[in-house]
Write a structure and sequence with these properties.
The complex is a heterodimer of chains A (223) and B (103).
Chain A (H helix, E strand, L loop, with lengths): L1 H16 L2 H5 L4 H7 L18 H4 L1 H10 L33 E2 L2 E2 L4 E7 L4 E6 L5 E6 L13 H18 L3 E7 L4 H11 L3 E7 L18
Parallel strand pairs in A: 3-6, 6-7
Antiparallel strand pairs in A: 1-2, 3-4, 4-5
Helix pairs in contact in A: 6-7
Chain B lengths: L25 E3 L5 H14 L2 H7 L6 H28 L13
Classes of the chains: A alpha/beta (223), B mainly alpha (103).
Chain lengths: 223, 103
Protein backbone atom coordinates (compact mmCIF):
# COMPACT_ATOMS: atom_id res chain seq x y z
CA UNK A 1 0.00 0.00 0.00
CA UNK A 2 2.68 2.47 1.03
CA UNK A 3 4.72 1.40 -1.98
CA UNK A 4 1.73 2.28 -4.26
CA UNK A 5 1.39 5.73 -2.67
CA UNK A 6 5.09 6.34 -3.09
CA UNK A 7 5.00 5.45 -6.81
CA UNK A 8 1.93 7.70 -7.35
CA UNK A 9 3.73 10.65 -5.74
CA UNK A 10 6.76 10.05 -7.94
CA UNK A 11 4.61 10.13 -11.10
CA UNK A 12 3.01 13.43 -10.02
CA UNK A 13 6.42 14.98 -9.47
CA UNK A 14 7.41 13.83 -12.98
CA UNK A 15 4.43 15.79 -14.47
CA UNK A 16 5.32 19.03 -12.70
CA UNK A 17 9.00 18.85 -13.55
CA UNK A 18 8.43 18.98 -17.32
CA UNK A 19 8.96 22.44 -18.96
CA UNK A 20 5.81 24.59 -19.34
CA UNK A 21 5.53 24.76 -23.12
CA UNK A 22 6.36 21.13 -23.88
CA UNK A 23 3.92 19.73 -21.35
CA UNK A 24 0.89 21.21 -23.10
CA UNK A 25 1.97 19.96 -26.52
CA UNK A 26 -0.27 17.02 -27.60
CA UNK A 27 2.73 15.30 -29.21
CA UNK A 28 4.65 15.23 -25.94
CA UNK A 29 1.92 13.90 -23.67
CA UNK A 30 1.75 10.39 -25.23
CA UNK A 31 5.53 10.07 -24.66
CA UNK A 32 5.03 10.97 -21.00
CA UNK A 33 2.28 8.34 -20.69
CA UNK A 34 4.53 5.73 -22.27
CA UNK A 35 7.26 6.38 -19.73
CA UNK A 36 4.94 5.95 -16.76
CA UNK A 37 2.82 3.08 -18.16
CA UNK A 38 4.68 0.45 -16.18
CA UNK A 39 3.96 2.19 -12.85
CA UNK A 40 0.76 0.90 -11.18
CA UNK A 41 -0.83 4.39 -10.77
CA UNK A 42 -2.67 6.97 -12.90
CA UNK A 43 -1.64 10.43 -14.14
CA UNK A 44 -4.57 12.32 -12.65
CA UNK A 45 -2.75 15.62 -12.51
CA UNK A 46 -2.64 15.95 -16.32
CA UNK A 47 -4.00 19.30 -17.49
CA UNK A 48 -5.83 19.28 -20.85
CA UNK A 49 -6.26 23.04 -21.27
CA UNK A 50 -5.07 24.38 -24.63
CA UNK A 51 -2.11 26.75 -24.97
CA UNK A 52 -3.14 30.42 -24.80
CA UNK A 53 -1.49 31.85 -27.91
CA UNK A 54 -1.63 35.37 -29.30
CA UNK A 55 -3.95 34.41 -32.18
CA UNK A 56 -6.59 33.16 -29.76
CA UNK A 57 -6.44 36.40 -27.80
CA UNK A 58 -7.73 38.49 -30.73
CA UNK A 59 -10.12 35.92 -32.19
CA UNK A 60 -13.11 37.17 -30.20
CA UNK A 61 -12.50 40.78 -31.21
CA UNK A 62 -12.41 39.83 -34.91
CA UNK A 63 -15.65 37.87 -34.56
CA UNK A 64 -17.29 40.86 -32.89
CA UNK A 65 -16.33 43.10 -35.81
CA UNK A 66 -18.10 40.80 -38.29
CA UNK A 67 -21.35 40.55 -36.35
CA UNK A 68 -21.61 44.15 -35.21
CA UNK A 69 -22.78 45.90 -38.40
CA UNK A 70 -25.65 43.96 -39.95
CA UNK A 71 -26.81 47.28 -41.40
CA UNK A 72 -24.07 48.39 -43.81
CA UNK A 73 -22.99 51.83 -42.69
CA UNK A 74 -20.01 52.05 -45.02
CA UNK A 75 -17.84 52.57 -41.96
CA UNK A 76 -15.61 49.53 -42.47
CA UNK A 77 -12.30 49.73 -40.68
CA UNK A 78 -13.89 51.77 -37.90
CA UNK A 79 -12.67 49.49 -35.14
CA UNK A 80 -9.11 48.45 -35.67
CA UNK A 81 -7.13 46.54 -33.07
CA UNK A 82 -3.77 46.86 -34.79
CA UNK A 83 -0.98 49.08 -33.58
CA UNK A 84 0.58 50.86 -36.54
CA UNK A 85 4.19 51.94 -36.99
CA UNK A 86 4.91 55.62 -37.45
CA UNK A 87 6.67 54.79 -40.75
CA UNK A 88 3.41 53.47 -42.20
CA UNK A 89 2.00 57.00 -42.30
CA UNK A 90 4.80 58.66 -44.30
CA UNK A 91 3.25 60.71 -47.08
CA UNK A 92 -0.25 59.56 -46.22
CA UNK A 93 -1.51 62.83 -44.76
CA UNK A 94 -1.40 66.15 -46.62
CA UNK A 95 0.80 68.98 -45.42
CA UNK A 96 1.40 72.63 -46.36
CA UNK A 97 3.10 71.62 -49.66
CA UNK A 98 0.32 69.33 -50.90
CA UNK A 99 -1.85 72.01 -52.62
CA UNK A 100 1.12 72.84 -54.88
CA UNK A 101 2.28 69.29 -55.49
CA UNK A 102 2.06 68.11 -59.09
CA UNK A 103 0.01 65.05 -59.99
CA UNK A 104 0.26 64.22 -63.71
CA UNK A 105 1.47 67.82 -64.44
CA UNK A 106 -1.50 69.34 -62.64
CA UNK A 107 -1.33 71.08 -59.27
CA UNK A 108 -3.30 69.36 -56.52
CA UNK A 109 -5.39 72.48 -55.95
CA UNK A 110 -6.33 72.53 -59.67
CA UNK A 111 -7.33 68.88 -59.87
CA UNK A 112 -10.89 67.93 -60.70
CA UNK A 113 -13.05 66.95 -57.76
CA UNK A 114 -15.08 63.76 -57.64
CA UNK A 115 -17.97 64.15 -55.27
CA UNK A 116 -19.67 61.04 -53.89
CA UNK A 117 -22.85 61.77 -51.98
CA UNK A 118 -23.80 58.69 -49.99
CA UNK A 119 -27.15 58.30 -48.32
CA UNK A 120 -29.13 55.50 -46.73
CA UNK A 121 -31.04 54.78 -49.93
CA UNK A 122 -28.85 55.93 -52.81
CA UNK A 123 -25.42 57.00 -54.03
CA UNK A 124 -24.95 59.98 -56.33
CA UNK A 125 -21.63 60.89 -57.91
CA UNK A 126 -20.46 63.91 -59.83
CA UNK A 127 -17.30 65.42 -61.27
CA UNK A 128 -16.60 69.12 -60.70
CA UNK A 129 -13.74 71.37 -61.70
CA UNK A 130 -11.91 73.44 -59.07
CA UNK A 131 -14.24 76.41 -59.59
CA UNK A 132 -17.25 74.25 -58.74
CA UNK A 133 -18.77 73.77 -62.15
CA UNK A 134 -20.48 70.40 -62.64
CA UNK A 135 -19.06 68.43 -65.57
CA UNK A 136 -20.81 65.07 -65.42
CA UNK A 137 -22.81 63.05 -62.92
CA UNK A 138 -24.12 59.57 -62.38
CA UNK A 139 -26.42 57.97 -59.87
CA UNK A 140 -27.59 54.44 -59.05
CA UNK A 141 -30.88 55.18 -60.80
CA UNK A 142 -29.10 56.12 -64.00
CA UNK A 143 -27.48 52.67 -63.96
CA UNK A 144 -30.95 51.09 -63.99
CA UNK A 145 -31.26 50.15 -60.33
CA UNK A 146 -34.65 50.92 -58.84
CA UNK A 147 -36.13 51.20 -55.35
CA UNK A 148 -34.35 49.09 -52.74
CA UNK A 149 -31.59 47.99 -55.09
CA UNK A 150 -30.27 51.56 -55.30
CA UNK A 151 -28.97 51.46 -51.75
CA UNK A 152 -26.78 48.38 -52.26
CA UNK A 153 -23.00 48.47 -52.48
CA UNK A 154 -23.12 46.71 -55.84
CA UNK A 155 -25.17 49.55 -57.31
CA UNK A 156 -22.69 52.07 -55.97
CA UNK A 157 -19.76 50.19 -57.47
CA UNK A 158 -21.51 50.00 -60.85
CA UNK A 159 -22.19 53.74 -60.71
CA UNK A 160 -18.57 54.43 -59.88
CA UNK A 161 -17.34 52.27 -62.72
CA UNK A 162 -19.65 53.92 -65.23
CA UNK A 163 -18.72 57.44 -64.14
CA UNK A 164 -15.06 56.46 -64.13
CA UNK A 165 -15.19 55.28 -67.76
CA UNK A 166 -17.01 58.49 -68.72
CA UNK A 167 -14.30 60.56 -67.04
CA UNK A 168 -11.47 58.56 -68.62
CA UNK A 169 -12.96 59.04 -72.09
CA UNK A 170 -13.36 62.77 -71.42
CA UNK A 171 -9.68 62.96 -70.51
CA UNK A 172 -10.00 63.30 -66.73
CA UNK A 173 -7.55 60.68 -65.50
CA UNK A 174 -6.38 62.12 -62.20
CA UNK A 175 -8.86 63.24 -59.62
CA UNK A 176 -9.30 63.96 -55.90
CA UNK A 177 -12.34 62.56 -54.14
CA UNK A 178 -14.79 64.16 -51.75
CA UNK A 179 -17.16 61.89 -49.85
CA UNK A 180 -20.31 62.96 -48.06
CA UNK A 181 -22.41 60.80 -45.80
CA UNK A 182 -22.50 57.30 -44.36
CA UNK A 183 -24.08 54.45 -46.30
CA UNK A 184 -23.39 51.26 -48.16
CA UNK A 185 -21.93 53.08 -51.14
CA UNK A 186 -19.20 54.79 -49.17
CA UNK A 187 -16.33 52.42 -49.97
CA UNK A 188 -17.98 50.59 -52.88
CA UNK A 189 -18.50 53.77 -54.90
CA UNK A 190 -14.91 54.86 -54.85
CA UNK A 191 -13.77 51.29 -55.47
CA UNK A 192 -15.79 51.36 -58.70
CA UNK A 193 -13.98 54.54 -59.74
CA UNK A 194 -10.58 53.00 -59.13
CA UNK A 195 -11.55 49.88 -61.13
CA UNK A 196 -12.28 52.01 -64.18
CA UNK A 197 -8.69 53.21 -64.41
CA UNK A 198 -9.03 56.72 -63.04
CA UNK A 199 -6.28 57.62 -60.59
CA UNK A 200 -7.71 58.81 -57.29
CA UNK A 201 -4.99 60.88 -55.65
CA UNK A 202 -6.59 61.84 -52.33
CA UNK A 203 -9.80 61.10 -50.47
CA UNK A 204 -11.43 63.74 -48.29
CA UNK A 205 -14.35 63.30 -45.98
CA UNK A 206 -16.89 66.09 -46.27
CA UNK A 207 -19.77 64.58 -44.28
CA UNK A 208 -22.12 67.15 -42.81
CA UNK A 209 -21.65 66.78 -39.11
CA UNK A 210 -24.23 68.80 -37.22
CA UNK A 211 -22.69 69.79 -33.89
CA UNK A 212 -25.57 72.07 -32.96
CA UNK A 213 -29.16 71.15 -33.82
CA UNK A 214 -29.22 73.81 -36.51
CA UNK A 215 -31.02 73.04 -38.75
CA UNK A 216 -32.89 70.71 -36.45
CA UNK A 217 -32.90 67.15 -37.78
CA UNK A 218 -36.08 65.19 -38.40
CA UNK A 219 -37.84 63.57 -35.48
CA UNK A 220 -37.11 60.01 -34.47
CA UNK A 221 -38.89 57.23 -36.33
CA UNK A 222 -41.27 55.34 -34.11
CA UNK A 223 -41.85 51.88 -35.59
CA UNK B 1 -18.98 75.85 -54.75
CA UNK B 2 -21.89 73.74 -55.93
CA UNK B 3 -22.90 70.75 -53.84
CA UNK B 4 -25.24 68.08 -55.10
CA UNK B 5 -28.63 68.10 -53.36
CA UNK B 6 -27.94 71.00 -51.00
CA UNK B 7 -31.04 71.30 -48.88
CA UNK B 8 -30.78 75.00 -48.06
CA UNK B 9 -29.62 76.87 -51.21
CA UNK B 10 -30.02 80.23 -49.42
CA UNK B 11 -27.13 79.35 -47.12
CA UNK B 12 -24.69 78.75 -49.99
CA UNK B 13 -22.61 81.79 -49.12
CA UNK B 14 -22.03 80.56 -45.57
CA UNK B 15 -19.39 77.85 -45.23
CA UNK B 16 -21.25 74.97 -43.61
CA UNK B 17 -18.04 73.07 -43.10
CA UNK B 18 -15.53 74.73 -40.83
CA UNK B 19 -12.45 72.65 -41.53
CA UNK B 20 -9.65 73.32 -44.07
CA UNK B 21 -10.87 71.84 -47.35
CA UNK B 22 -8.77 68.99 -48.75
CA UNK B 23 -6.28 69.38 -45.91
CA UNK B 24 -8.28 68.23 -42.90
CA UNK B 25 -10.00 64.82 -42.93
CA UNK B 26 -7.91 63.92 -45.97
CA UNK B 27 -5.79 60.90 -46.82
CA UNK B 28 -3.43 60.67 -49.78
CA UNK B 29 -3.88 57.46 -51.78
CA UNK B 30 -0.90 55.26 -52.73
CA UNK B 31 -1.01 53.19 -55.93
CA UNK B 32 -4.79 53.76 -56.26
CA UNK B 33 -5.38 51.61 -53.16
CA UNK B 34 -8.60 53.41 -52.27
CA UNK B 35 -10.03 50.69 -50.02
CA UNK B 36 -7.33 50.85 -47.36
CA UNK B 37 -7.37 54.66 -47.56
CA UNK B 38 -11.11 54.64 -46.94
CA UNK B 39 -10.68 52.28 -44.01
CA UNK B 40 -8.07 54.63 -42.59
CA UNK B 41 -10.40 57.61 -42.94
CA UNK B 42 -13.20 55.65 -41.24
CA UNK B 43 -10.87 54.72 -38.41
CA UNK B 44 -9.69 58.30 -37.89
CA UNK B 45 -13.21 59.70 -38.07
CA UNK B 46 -14.47 57.18 -35.53
CA UNK B 47 -11.54 57.74 -33.16
CA UNK B 48 -12.13 61.49 -33.30
CA UNK B 49 -15.78 60.91 -32.41
CA UNK B 50 -17.10 62.38 -35.65
CA UNK B 51 -19.03 59.31 -36.82
CA UNK B 52 -20.70 59.00 -33.43
CA UNK B 53 -21.79 62.65 -33.56
CA UNK B 54 -23.03 62.20 -37.15
CA UNK B 55 -25.15 59.18 -36.17
CA UNK B 56 -26.55 61.00 -33.12
CA UNK B 57 -27.65 63.95 -35.21
CA UNK B 58 -29.30 61.98 -38.01
CA UNK B 59 -32.50 62.19 -36.01
CA UNK B 60 -33.43 64.82 -33.45
CA UNK B 61 -32.60 63.77 -29.89
CA UNK B 62 -35.13 65.21 -27.45
CA UNK B 63 -33.76 66.88 -24.29
CA UNK B 64 -34.95 64.09 -21.98
CA UNK B 65 -33.12 61.55 -24.18
CA UNK B 66 -30.00 63.74 -24.16
CA UNK B 67 -30.01 63.87 -20.35
CA UNK B 68 -30.59 60.12 -20.16
CA UNK B 69 -27.68 59.36 -22.52
CA UNK B 70 -25.27 61.73 -20.76
CA UNK B 71 -26.05 60.27 -17.35
CA UNK B 72 -25.51 56.78 -18.74
CA UNK B 73 -22.15 57.79 -20.25
CA UNK B 74 -21.00 59.38 -16.98
CA UNK B 75 -21.93 56.26 -15.00
CA UNK B 76 -20.25 54.02 -17.59
CA UNK B 77 -17.05 56.10 -17.46
CA UNK B 78 -16.86 55.73 -13.68
CA UNK B 79 -17.50 51.99 -13.89
CA UNK B 80 -14.96 51.46 -16.69
CA UNK B 81 -12.30 53.39 -14.80
CA UNK B 82 -12.77 51.35 -11.62
CA UNK B 83 -12.94 48.08 -13.54
CA UNK B 84 -9.73 48.88 -15.45
CA UNK B 85 -8.00 49.71 -12.15
CA UNK B 86 -9.16 46.42 -10.65
CA UNK B 87 -8.05 44.41 -13.66
CA UNK B 88 -4.62 46.03 -13.65
CA UNK B 89 -4.33 45.30 -9.94
CA UNK B 90 -5.39 41.66 -10.26
CA UNK B 91 -3.23 41.07 -13.34
CA UNK B 92 -0.08 42.54 -11.83
CA UNK B 93 2.75 40.05 -11.89
CA UNK B 94 6.49 39.70 -11.55
CA UNK B 95 7.18 36.70 -13.75
CA UNK B 96 10.07 35.93 -16.09
CA UNK B 97 8.99 36.44 -19.71
CA UNK B 98 8.35 32.88 -21.12
CA UNK B 99 8.65 33.96 -24.77
CA UNK B 100 11.71 36.14 -24.73
CA UNK B 101 12.11 38.29 -27.83
CA UNK B 102 8.49 38.23 -29.01
CA UNK B 103 7.80 41.88 -28.01
Amino acid sequence: MLNLLGSRLSSISLCSSLPFGLFRDPNVIPKVLRITQNSPCTLSCLDSRPLWTGSLLYRNNEKRENVKNIYDDGAQGEYSFTVENKEKFDGVFPDENTPNMLFDDVKFSDLHILEIKVSKNNTIMGVFDTKGKLLMNRSCRSEGFRHARKKTAIAAQATGFSLGTLMYQAGIKTVRARIRGLGSGRIAGIKGISLSGVNVVAISDFTDINYTNDPRPKKRRRI
Amino acid sequence: MAFIGLRYPALNHISLRSFPKFVGRTVMVKDNDVESSMRLINRIMSEEGMLKRYRLNLRYEKPYLVRRRLNYEKAKAIYDEDMARKINFVMRKNRVDPWVGST
